[in-house]
Amino acid sequence: MSAEPSAALADRLAEVDGRITDAVRAAGRRGDDVTRIVVTKFHPADLVAQLHALGVRDVGENRQQEFTAKVDEVGPLDGLRWHFIGQAQTNKARAIRSAASAVHSVDRVRLAEALHAAADEGAPVLDVLLQVNLTEDPGRGGVQPGELEALAAHAAGLDSLRVRGIMAVAPLDVPPARAFASLPSLSATVRAVVPGATWISAGMTADFAEAIAAGATHLRIGSAITGPRPDRG
Length: 233
Known about the structure:
Strands 7-6-5-4-3-2-1-8 form an eight-stranded parallel sheet.
């Protein structure tokens, strides 16, 4: 699939990348520490091809059905990595694994085991992140911080998975800087089990600067780059 990127898309991408650069500099970090993932939720597959033409190599989706369909429609594009960032059902594990380069939302043992069991013989190791709930609401996605170490140990014992780090979403009712303040210690909890698990997936369109200040290595940015989501009718 090939597509000519629009000038507006290129401008939005450049503007966000400039803001990321500024936030990285303000945090005293290096730019190569941060990976920008463009979330293309509800946008057509053609947008992924346009983004790829602009140099984007990491894209994300959070609904399995749309994720699978889009990966199939886009087809192979040089260097493109697909990140699954949404809540995952265990019965969708095989479909997710077959399409994903990385899964950011492993939040329970059963899901880790389902993704492991979905590995075909000779399949590449799957990068996974452990999603942590930054609230006290058990209805939100993510493992509770007190259960993170045990989940990390279990996932690390599944040889078709590679634990890369943690993922978190800031709640809407808490200032982002305060919500993300625990990220360094949560990351350290996982690194005590898996020393190389240095990824911190946090920060979206409205709060990626605060996430960078808290140590985020992977940002999940949608509408600021892609533009308004199409009307789903």
